[in-house]
Design goal:
Blueprint lengths: L2 E2 L1 E2 L20 E2 L3 E4 L10 E8 L2 E5 L5 E4 L4 E2 L3 E2 L5 E2 L2 E3 L6 E3 L2 H5 L8 H4 L1
Parallel strand pairs: 2-3
Antiparallel strand pairs: 1-5, 4-5, 4-8, 5-6, 6-7, 9-10, 11-12
Amino acid sequence: MPWAGTSSSGDYACATASQYTLKDLRTKRKGQPVFVLGHLLHRKGHEAAFEVFNDRIALVKFEDGGIAGYDPIELLLPTEIDDKGVAYFEIRSCGDCEILFPLTQEEANAEQEPARCPECRS
């Protein structure tokens, strides 16, 4: 199987107003921290690291060494990454559609957090 679509350039990404999921990123870097929403119930809600694309599926690696494939839209970006490279996730549920979404660093530090996901806000 061909392995393509990764880049080792640049830094790891955090959630922004236009980039909330791995799918939103133009450059996906190996090791990118993500929060898994996907279809495997025993992995849902866990943190993982992006490894590579394999036939349009994002392969992610969990701390226990397990690897699973997900649609990149099922992988949320962290709210912030500290100077030691530790990712922090502020995940919220939308008050309208109940989908989970990450807060951006600005939203997490604001006096009032958004109660709705970016799609419901627009």
